[in-house]
Every structure is written in structure tokens, then in C-alpha cells.
Amino acid sequence: MVSARIQPAILCGGVGTRLWPLSRALYPKQLLALAGDRTLFQDTVLRVQDPRRFAPPLVIGNEEHRFILAEQLRAIEVTPAALVVEPVGRNTAPAATIAALLIARDDPTALMLLLPADHVIADTAAFRDAVDRGAAAAARGRLVAFGVEPTGPHCGYGYLQRGEPVDGIAGCFAVRRFVEKPDRRSAEEYLALGSYAWNSGIFLFPVSRWLSEIERRHPAILAACQQAVAERHDDLGFVKLGAEAFAASPADSIDYAIMEHVDDAVVVPVAMGWSDVGSWAALWEISPHDAAGNALRGDVLAVDVERSLLRSDGPALAAVGLRDIVIVATKDAVLAVPRERAEEVRAVVDRLGRSGRSEHRTHTVIYRPWGSYETIDLGPRYRVKRLVVNPGAQLSLQMHHHRAEHWVVVQGTARVTRDGTTMLLGENESTYIPMGTPHRLENPGRIPLQLVEVQTGSYLEEDDIVRFDDSYGRG
Question: Which of 250, 275, 340, 380 has the least C-beta neighbours within 10 A?
Fold first, then answer.
């Protein structure tokens, strides 16, 4: 290991459209537990929890996901160096520049390890060993990519070709060329040559070198990011960038902006059980299979089914006589697609968006800073919701002009403030909030508070709310 500090920067943007209906814009794939009990983001964070190698991670995510990211960090008991929220997405090059500017303020000699939050890496030891090898090259000022040794002619990944070994650094090679996603014939040729690797999208740079390359090749990106960092401010523990300044940055990827144009890039080949989980076919490949080659999860019954992925996060799912199929069921949507055409799910998401529907954007469960809610019934002049309030969390002090609410506690303890009077409610206890009455709901306990809320009135949409006080800075 080298003496320079390695600062992980975890990039949490992206919406994972090819994993619809599970991944959606407001709850994308990096926030989902796709390959185990923890989410992809949580696994990425824990992969760099080694104080001998890594500083606490810097997390950069979408502003709409900030409270979910914070809650997932809390659940694994990790305190990041900072949780930076982007007002808009601008691809990975501006995000890397923001990270480099913030890291350089504390340590201009640091090495920055850029990690997408939505990848699976099965072999953490191999990953860390590869980082050690790459750090030796980065400490000499080189820009380092990590190339995954291919296990087949995959057409959904970019490739890079390694050249000559780097003198004095075992396991590091010059990058001869970067290649975009190839056709099948080209991918087979790359595999046969043996000198190509999949481009993992993981990079290790000296922060000073990255900033100098951005300044030379893309000064508009650097200027916008510098202004966004200069205008940053703390908001409930999040680092919020200057919104207009960051939005003015051109959008570009790390590969296109820098890596494909430098002549001293280095690749570290590594076999670490890597997948970008970019489609349902990719998830099938890395999932445990039964004797018939099926990946099954949830309430699923498979009869005479082979080489298929069947997953239900909602209703019972039964399939008979299928081969090489993906079926995914959630509470509000079902996807069925041949496994070989799983990449085409993006077209469904695009059509949903154009038609004005909401299934591409949100789940039936809506996440809020304090917890979540789910509509379980809806009719003329009434709506029934299931609310979950996290331990220690509270909703805003608020009122509604057009609806009344009935609350029934089914788990935990609720502290209810109603028109200036506070009461505690336990399981099987209830209260009524008349229309126009200021009120607040809190969870003072150590377990999640669950309650059923029945709304009645002439208008039941979420914009009928007047907030008098809010712990999360919402108006």
C-alpha cells in the first residue's frame, strides 16, 4: 500500500431504467437490495470500510434521494466524509470534478477512488488488492482504470485494451485503447485476443491530476463546478451545491471527457465477480440458480420453467412451461420479457414517461425524510394509507384545508400534537384530526411506528398541506 490517502467518492446518480419495474426514478437500482440483503449502495460503502486503506467516503447523490441515502448510511452505521446532493444530473465527469474540488481543499495530495454505487462486486479482497496495485500507479501521477477480466463476449459493456506493463508496478498496464459497447462479432474477437477487459467504470486518480486535466480539456466544466462548490451550503447535514452554477456545467462522462484522450492511462486487470447489474439478464447471471437454472425471489411458483428469472415483490407469481423468460411483479406493475431482450425494457420506461403515467417514476410506496407511506385504497372522497415513521422522526406541523384524517396505530408509539395539545397513542389506539386543525405526528420510540390513516374530504391530493414548522426544510 502507498502512503497517499485514498479518498473514496461514491457516485449515486442514475435511474436504472432497464431494471423497471423495480427500479424507478425516485427509487433507482442503487437503493435496492437486488443481490442480497443490503442495497447496492450499502455494499459499495462497506467495500471501502478499511481505515488502513481508505478515508471515510464522500457520497454524491441526487437531491431527490438524499434522505434515503442518509437513512441507508445510518442503517449500516457509516458516517460519510460528506453527503453532497446534486440539484440536477450532469453525468460522471462533473460529479468527479465536484468530488476532486472538495477533497483537494483538505488534502491536495489525496488519491480519489471513484466508485459507481450500483455495481455488484462479489470478491471484496480482490477489489482491494486491485486498488492497492492501482494506487502505486496513481501515486506516480497516472490515471488508473480497472478492467474486469471478461467471462464472455458481452455486448452491453465498454472495453479497454491493455498494452505494455508499467515499469516497476506489478499488475498495471498501459491502456492501448478504449472501445464503446461492441457488436457480438467484435466482442468475440476481443475475448479471443485476451488483451481486452470490460471497463468497470471504477477509476483512481490523484485529485491534482484530475483537476489539471479538466482545466485543460473542459474549462467550462471546471468553472461551473468551482462556482457550485463556492456557493455550497449545509442543509440539515447535506452539502447542497450552487444549483444554477452546477446546472450550467456541460454533461459528460469520465471516459469521454478525459480517459480516452490522455496518453498515460493505466489499467489494472482484476477478476472480482463484477457486474454493473445493467439489466434483468445481468441480474439473472449473478443470482443463485435452482436445478433448472432459474433465479427465483419472492412469492413465486415455477412449474416446468427453465433458465428464467421470476421475482415478485407483491402478488403471488405462478409460471408454467417457460424458457429463458424474465417476469418481475411489483404491487402496481408486471414486466414479462424474453431474457435475451431484457436490454429493451428502457423502451417501456420511455413510453410510460411520454404517456404521462407515473409508474416509471414512483412506486406505490413513497419515501419521505421521516419514513414512507403507501396508498392501499382510494375512492370518492376517501383515501386509505399505511404510514411508517422511523424511530425519532417527525412529520411537519401542518394543516389541511380540504380533508380530515383518522389515525389508528398498529405498531409502536405515536406522539400526536393536535391544536396545541399533545397525547401519546399505543397500539390499537386512534385519534381524529378535523379539517383545518394544526397537527403533528412523531415517533418517540425505538421501533418503527406504523399506522393506518383514513383521509376523508373533497380534495385528497398531497399539495393540500400548509406547513408551519418542518425539520427537513420543506416549505
Answer: 380
Q: In angstroms, how far apart are the furthest CA atoms of the chain?
A: 76
Q: Please, which pLDDT band fits residue 35 given cuts at 50, 70 and 90?
A: confident
The phi-psi region of residue 339 (left if phi > 0; otherwise alpha if psi is between -120 and 50; otherwise beta) is: alpha
Q: Is there a contact between 404 and 434 (Cβ–Cβ < 8 Å)? A: yes
Is the pLDDT confidence value at 1 over 70? no
C-alpha separations of 326 from 46, 182, 339, 343 in Å: 30, 24, 6, 11
pTM of the predicted model as reported, rounded to 2 decimal places: 0.90
Q: What is the mean pLDDT of residues 44-73?
A: 95
Annotate 443-474 with DSSP letters as a single string.
Answer: --SSS-EEEEEEEEES---TT--EEEE-TT--
SS3 191: helix
Residue closest to 227 by CA, chosen among 87, 58, 56: 87
3 state SS of 22: coil
Tell me which H or E stretch contains 237: none
Task: Delineate the domains of the chain, giving CATH numbers in brackets.
Answer: 6-275 (3.90.550.10), 280-354 (no CATH), 365-469 (2.60.120.10)
